[in-house]
Amino acid sequence: MNDPLTPPSPSDPLPAVAAYWDAAAPAFDREPDHGLLDAATRRAWQRRLADWLPGEGLDVLDVGCGTGSLALLLAEAGHRVTGVDLAPAMVDRARQKFAAAGLAGRFLVGDASNPPTGADRYDAVLSRHLVWTLPDPPAALRAWSDLLRPGGRLLLVEGRWGEADAPVEPYAPGTEALPWAGGVPASALTAALRPLVHDLHVHPLESDTALWGGPVHDERYAVLACR
After folding, report:
1. CA spacing 20 to 30 A to 110: which of 8, 85, 118, 219?
2. Which positions fall inside the Methyltransferase domain (predicted)?
C-alpha cells in the first residue's frame, strides 16, 4: 500500500491525487452540490439529469463519481450505473449510499481518465467537475467518447472557477502543470470536443442557483454531445 505521506515520483502523481481525494471524502458531501442534502438542490439536479438523459434503462458510466450523489439520482430514475473514481474512500461512500437506498450500482476504483471497464460500452458517459484535475484532458475526452455506443451521449458538467487569469495553486504533488487547473471555459472544452462528437450543445448553469445551493459568480455549464 502506498504511504500517502510519501510524495510520488514526478512521473506518477496518481498516488498523491488519490490520497488528496481520500482525505477530502469525509467532508465532501457538505458542499450543497456534492451531497445534495438539501431537497431543493436535489430536485434541481434530478430535473437537469432527466432533461439531459431522458427515459430509463440507460447504461451510464459516471467518471470521477466521487461519493455517488449523481449516480444515485440516475439509479433512482431507472438507469444502470457504473461509477469510477481514483479515491477508494470516495468509492466506499458511493457504495454505502447505494446500499442504504437498496439500489444496484457498480463502483470501481481506478483512473477516471482511462476507466477500467474493459470492453463495456455505454449509452451515456457523465463527468462533473473532473477535467480540471486531469493531466491530459483531451486524451480523457477521446477515451470517454470511445466508450459510447453509437448515438450515445457525453455529458460534461464543468466550469471555470474564479478569475480566469488568476494563478492556481497545485492541490497535490505532481499537479503543478495541469492544463485546465482552475476549471475550463466552455469555449475551450467545446473546441477539444468537436472533433470527437456531433450535435454538441452548451447549457449555461450559473444562473440556476438551486443547483449550487446559492448564487455563484463564475462560469458553470453543461456540454451535451452525441457520438
Report:
1. 219
2. 60-152
* CA neighbor of 90 nearest in space, from 153, 133, 54: 133
Output the pTM of the full model: 0.93
Q: What is the crossing angle of helices 69-76 and 88-101, to 10°?
A: 30
> How far is it, in rounded angstroms, from Cα 112 to Cα 131?
10
Segment (H or E) for 125: strand 122-128
Q: Provide the β-strand partners of residue 5.
A: none
- 169 — pLDDT class (breaks 50, 70, 90): confident
Residue 7's identity, in one-letter code, is P
Count up the domains in the chain and report the number. Answer: 1
Distances (CA, A) of 19 to 16, 35, 93, 159: 5, 20, 15, 24
Residue 8 belongs to a domain: no
- What confidence score (pLDDT) does residue 87 get? 98
- Residue of 51, 76, 73 whose CA lies nearest to 153: 51
CATH number at residue 200: 3.40.50.150
SS3 102: coil
| Residue 9 Cα distances to 15, 16, 120, 177, angstroms | 9, 10, 32, 14
Check pLDDT > 60 for residue 4.
no
Answer whether residue 73 is part of any domain. yes
Residue 7 resides in a domain: no
Cα gap 215→132, rounded to integer Å: 22
Question: Which DSSP letter does residue 112 get?
Answer: T
Q: Is residue 3 part of a domain?
A: no
> What residue numbers bound the domain in which 94 lies?
16-226
